[in-house]
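hey can u check if this looks right to u? its 192 residues, i copy pasted from the old doc so theres a chance i mangled smth
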Amino acid sequence: VYGTEHPEFGAGLRNLSLTVDGLGRVDEGIALLRRTLELDLKRGDDDRLTRAITQNNLGFRLQRERRFAEAEPFLRESLANYEHIDPKHPDRAAPLINLGSVLVETARAAEALPLLREGVALREQNMQPGSWQLQTARNVLGACLVAVGQADEGRPLLQSSYEALLAKLGPEHKRTLEAKRRLDAANLVSAK
């Protein structure tokens, strides 16, 4: 039997957070991730990868709830841990894209652009072209490009990634709806 300090206990909490989040109990899922991170931090530098994953998951959940100020430090810490592990680690794409999204949403698109370009490049190297993860990353990058005044490059990315997500996930999926929101916002900007 594993005790509460064992890494498997933390993994179980992380998995449970996904389950309760999927049931709509978002705050409970976030609390479980915070507890998981506490356990990860107690282990010190022995398991930076696990800590980076937990920090990214927590940052992503907070970002999704539009709690950007809370999300940002976790995403930056996740990136710092991946830098220590391996800057080319394929999972590093997630905090790059999530932090980039936070920065775009908080009117810091210029700061987000290099992070998003790097995150998309990592996903392109490590994922199939039609994967929803890659298409979501391209969609966020497209919105960022529009925000920094590069609409000629951004709008096609927004359109193609939205169409790919629509085909892959369907019109009612949350990722498709978010991609549509970004596309519509870009179209409003260009209509002005």
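The chain has a mean pLDDT of 91.
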